[in-house]
Amino acid sequence: MPNTPAYIGRFAPTPSGQLHFGSLLAALASYLDARQAGGQWLVRIEDLDLPRNLPGAADQILQTLDTYGLHWDATVLWQSQRTDYYQQLIDQLLAAGQAFYCDCSRRELQVHAGIYPGTCRQRQLSAAADRAIRVQVDDHPLSFIDRLQGLFTQRLQTEVGDFIIRRRDGIIAYQLAVVADDIAQQVSDVVRGADLLDSTPRQLWLYQLLGARPPRHLHIPLAMRRDGEKLSKRLTSTPLAAEQAPATLFRALQVLAQEPPAELARADINELLGWATVHWQPERLPALQQLPDLSE
């Protein structure tokens, strides 16, 4: 049986649109971190939220990654094909008394500033089509050290509350699915955008409940538009162009503070990625959650 690599990283896009420059920064940082460590780099399509999926977007994402030289190891994992596995974990949490059914509405939660007050914890509601499932948390400080952002601490009960792991419409929630898949794929390192920094304690809580060791984290600053919004599919940020791949990769390395030499501006994709893999230094990035005034 082959040994499991010491480093396994992943890039996990949602197919709600095509990849844009902000997506590329996260994919490239994750790829370089894995390749420099001599590890595996996986791609996962997080397509559970079916109403948000754009037809053809997943295939376009995979094609773009390939065009930009970001070639993944192993078979692409599709979350929409793994709902039975997620439900098994949810049933496990329910049976252990660590999760419960909830019929609270969004309007009720608005009174508590969106922080769930534990209303249904002791109600022992039964399963029903229109009921969410929440995982129960406590108020002990939960901390981790991000490789770039440093120490981050959150008290889940007072800052978040018991959080949803299966929505009222039956869709498995992001927090549960991402942890389940990272455990199953033995992911050792997660490199992603800093907009997910405050989700990490919820994921660490699930790792704890499921008896698994969490990965290391590196949350890179977000690319922002001039209007203060992050580059995103929701805001229809400009998709990555195949014919501009070398120039766009060079710009991405600059934005990631890797300081590529000027002569690489005329290099091809293989030369760019080869240089970047050898010279990758994530500590050069500023310990910020946003990169100021970056526009397309």
TrEMBL record:
SUPFAM superfamilies: Nucleotidylyl transferase. Pfam families: tRNA-synt_1c (PF00749). GO terms for biological process: glutamyl-tRNA aminoacylation; tRNA modification. Binds 1 zinc ion per subunit. Its cofactor is Zn(2+). Keywords: Aminoacyl-tRNA synthetase, ATP-binding, Ligase, Metal-binding, Nucleotide-binding, Protein biosynthesis, Zinc. GO terms for cellular component: cytosol. A motif ('HIGH' region) lies at residues 13-23. GO terms for molecular function: ATP binding; glutamate-tRNA ligase activity; zinc ion binding. Its EC number is 6.1.1.-. ATP binds at K233. A motif ('KMSKS' region) lies at residues 230-234. InterPro entries: Glu-Q_tRNA(Asp)_Synthase, Glu/Gln-tRNA-synth, Glu/Gln-tRNA-synth_Ib_cat-dom, GluQ/Sye, Rossmann-like_a/b/a_fold. Residues 10-238 form the Glutamyl/glutaminyl-tRNA synthetase class Ib catalytic domain. It comes from the Bacteria. L-glutamate binds at R10, F11, A12, P13, T14, E46, Y174, R192. Zn(2+) binds at C102, C104, Y116, C120. Belongs to the class-I aminoacyl-tRNA synthetase family. GluQ subfamily. Catalyzes the tRNA-independent activation of glutamate in presence of ATP and the subsequent transfer of glutamate onto a tRNA(Asp). Glutamate is transferred on the 2-amino-5-(4,5-dihydroxy-2-cyclopenten-1-yl) moiety of the queuosine in the wobble position of the QUC anticodon. NCBIfam families: PRK05710.1-3, queuosine_YadB. This is Glutamyl-Q tRNA(Asp) synthetase.
